[in-house]
Amino acid sequence: MGLLLSSFWRAVLYCLHPKVILLSLAPLVVAIGATGVLAYFFWQRAQEALLSVLDASVFVASLAAWLSAVGLPSLKAMLAPLILIVVLTPLVVVCTVLLVSAVMAPALVQVVAHRRFPTLERRGAASLFASLAWTLISCFLALVATIITSPMWIVPPLVLILPPAIWAWLTYRVMAFDALAQHASSAERQTIFTKHKGALITMGFVVGFLGATPSLLWSMGLMALAMAPLLLPFSVWLYTVVFVFASLWFIHYCLAALAALREEHEAAIFVPSRDVPSVDTPVLPSAPAPSALPPLP
Asked: At a CB cut-off of 8 Å and minimum separation 6, what does 97 contact?
């Protein structure tokens, strides 16, 4: 627990480091630029296309008639933007994870290692391709889990459990792997994953709940839908900040755990030998050999 909390506060302080702030601008500019361009050119078209599909649906027509009967005809206009937001939010999160993992994680590892662990030997065998492949596979599995479980998000208890659990699993796999990719061997990485699995999953859950907070921007109703082209880039920035903090938290924790693991291993190998004083055992006098029997007459 001490390592968990100390790594947390170190990550908070490192988020205010000028170099970390400068590094965070790269994925932030790319994500906001790409999201802004897509929202400006395709948001309205996507709404119109989805609305035409919904108008052709018998179920949506029945739902619209029922909403009009109860005095809520305007809710039909919110259906298409709401569906787009539900679909785009996981994509925004996954793209943010990819950007942080590919652009910032190696640089953040160097910053932390240079300041806290300058003597920690680099034994990492994971290449950049292996790290990207691990991240892509993890993000794909998280997207599949999101798509499968999204119908259950309408149940009030599950909406507070399932999304953070998915992001916790994704964060745990991606951030812990990137934190150890340069310094830990494959055997050391697996040992840390096994030995500290509970703490790493706990960190993933905390980050998962933090990662769900930008979704509260869309709880403003019609105002949020009207401001979607502006709120979407801002939510990307919030997701970036959350995952930068998560990356620093995992880096501090995993490198400290790796240093402790190597100290334990070296202490187990290089145990100083202790000379045990020898005790002279008294030598008992041997019994005299029996004399030869006299010859028979």
From this structure: 135, 139, 170, 171, 174, 243
